[in-house]
Amino acid sequence: MNDTPPDVSLRDFQHLIRDMYLEKDVARGIDGTFMWLMEEVGELAAALREGTPQEQAAEFADVLAWLTTIANGGGVDLAAAVGEKYGAGGPGCGLLVCTCKDSEKP
Amino acid sequence: MNDTPPDVSLRDFQHLIRDMYLEKDVARGIDGTFMWLMEEVGELAAALREGTPQEQAAEFADVLAWLTTIANGGGVDLAAAVGEKYGAGGPGCGLLVCTCKDSEKP
Asked: Could you tell me the pTM of the whole model?
């Protein structure tokens, strides 16, 4: 028996969020949608400080959803974006296990 | 011929980021890692205002990577988190195409 929750592909998740929210996001515009992302980022920070694991998970989901909806508005394919930047190792040192100095942007 | 870039599953991406960065992220701690996320969010805002499509895509990838690395530090499975919150329709109205009022959190 496998109790691992289902996985989801980044592109499928982006399509799901598009189907759910694109019409409203386009009407709101990227600036207004970014404000919602910022609110969720604040809630994530609060949850990381004093939330339950369930609350933290929900806030991660919300931040990811708002980031994704902004990507939809901007026509960015997140799967392609992360594949381009992280698919072949870290963008700094280029190694799968990062060896950049901590003071550098990893 | 199919030119669509490869997709990636959220769990596989989280594992990739864990393999690349977990050791450094644990040493830095969630607070310090959150600062890096904030820096990337700022860069995303700048790219959305005046960046090229390629620059925008790279900043989306960076924000997603930092969000993911914080999830790793907090032991949150992003695939499970989004499945729990968005897998069965929007968290507000519960419909696949959101009908919440714009003034409400969708």
From this structure: 0.86
